[in-house]
């Protein structure tokens, strides 16, 4: 499986994003360069990091060491909650840590409504976009009420909402609202932090296809039109997850997985999450 097999998706501003990427949350900074080098070697061309993950420099080092042409890579990073009042300066720190002239996608990591700063931060992101330093800008963890407020005020509309989304937590209303606003839905914790791989329906479908549970869940993500950014520190699983692009689920398989939604959130609730280290 090579990067050429990974489908691309056009964001609303015309920028193309590989639909399957590699997430580096919770990979310790000292292991991240090796992990990302492994992911690039396996065929990933889309890497998802964040200032809060404290591994942007290691991502940048892996990118530099890879020798892969910059235009063939798609690098996302995110604005930390505690930096919403100084988004431009924080962006410059991320860009320097990554060692990139520009990033492909820059996201507000969480809305933190209690802070009341995301509109101010968005104005900085709009400027970063107009200055050509981010090819696309978007948000993460925004609920419909945050999207409404943002879209109402935005001069440049966000093109991505990165949200927790997996078979047991499908967030259909939020995904639909995001798409209605012209945003692509990017699924984080796309495997349900591996817990959804234990689901008996997922296992049954995987046996029928001669695939693994992770491949079935990722194939469901892609066929649902989501961008997915699974994390694994295990090289064999990097290849396994990438090979999900060749798994074709039937309409009945899709329906069976659609029925698994249990409203089971694993991460923080964006309505109240306010951790400043993020
Ligand atoms: P995932 O759903 O990607 O699950 C990761 C877990 O699944 C790890 O324990 C990994 O283990 C395991 N795993 C991966 N592949 C396989 C496989 N083929 N078979 C069995 N187990 C597997 O959850 P994450 O929460 O890590 O989310 C992925 C990415 O999403 C993050 O890295 C980050 O980029 C993004 N994210 C964004 C957030 C936001 O607020 N915007 C919040 C959370 C995540 P191992 O590593 O040991 O192989």
In short:
The chain has 278 residues and is an alpha/beta fold.
What does this structure look like?
This protein is of the alpha/beta class and 278 residues long. Helix content is 38%, strand content 15%. The chain has 10 helices and 10 strands. The strands form 2 sheets. An 8-stranded parallel beta sheet has the order 3-4-5-6-7-8-9-10. Strands 1-2 form a two-stranded antiparallel ribbon. The protein is globular, with a radius of gyration of 18 Å. The model has no long low-confidence stretch (mean pLDDT 97). NADPH dihydro-nicotinamide-adenine-dinucleotide phosphate (NDP) is lined by residues 23-25, 48, 109, 140-141, 162, 188-194, 197, 212, 214, 229-234, 237, 240-241, 267.
Task: Based on the model shown, name its key terms.
278 residues; alpha/beta; eight-stranded parallel β-sheet; two-stranded antiparallel ribbon; 10 helices; binds NADPH dihydro-nicotinamide-adenine-dinucleotide phosphate
| Average of per-residue pLDDT values | 97
Low-confidence stretches: none
Can you summarize the main beta sheet?
Answer: 8 strands, parallel
Helix content: 25-40%
Shape: globular
Main β-sheet, spatial strand arrangement: 3-4-5-6-7-8-9-10
Determine the strand fraction and express it as a percent band: 15-25%
Q: List all distinct small molecules, including ions and cofactors, that are bound in this structure.
A: NADPH dihydro-nicotinamide-adenine-dinucleotide phosphate
Distance between the termini: 34 Å
> What structural class do the secondary elements suggest?
alpha/beta
Number of helical stretches of at least 4 residues: 10
User: Cα-atom Rg, whole angstroms?
Assistant: 18 Å
- Find the count of extended strands (DSSP E, 2+ residues): 10
SSE string, helices as H and strands as E: EEEHEHEHEHEHEHEHHEHH
């Amino acid at each position: 499986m090579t990067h050429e097999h990974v489908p691309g998706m056009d964001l609303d501003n015309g920028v193309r994003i590989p639909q399957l990427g590699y997430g580096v949350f919770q990979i310790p900074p000292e292991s991240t360069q090796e992990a990302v080098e492994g992911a690039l070697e396996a065929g990933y061309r889309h890497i998802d990091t964040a200032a809060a993950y404290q591994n942007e420099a290691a991502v940048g080092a892996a990118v530099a060491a890879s020798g892969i042409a910059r235009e063939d890579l798609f690098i996302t990073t995110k604005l930390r909650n505690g930096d919403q009042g100084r988004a431009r300066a924080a962006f410059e720190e991320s860009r320097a840590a990554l060692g990139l002239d520009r990033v492909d996608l820059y996201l507000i990591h969480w809305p933190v409504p209690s802070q009341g700063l995301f509109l101010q931060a968005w104005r900085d992101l709009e400027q970063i976009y107009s200055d050509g330093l981010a090819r696309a800008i978007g948000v993460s963890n925004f609920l419909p009420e945050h999207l409404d407020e943002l879209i109402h005020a935005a001069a440049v509309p966000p093109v991505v909402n990165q949200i927790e989304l997996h078979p047991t937590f499908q967030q259909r209303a939020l995904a639909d609202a995001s798409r209605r606003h012209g945003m692509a839905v990017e699924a984080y914790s796309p495997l349900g932090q591996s817990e959804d791989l234990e689901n008996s329906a997922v296992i049954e479908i995987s046996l029928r296809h001669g695939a693994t549970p992770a491949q079935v869940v990722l194939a469901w993500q892609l066929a649902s039109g989501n961008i997915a950014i699974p994390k694994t520190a295990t090289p064999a699983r990097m290849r396994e997850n990438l090979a999900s692009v060749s798994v074709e689920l039937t309409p009945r398989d899709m329906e069976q997985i659609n029925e698994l939604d249990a409203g089971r959130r694993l991460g923080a609730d964006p309505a109240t999450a306010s951790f400043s280290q993020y």
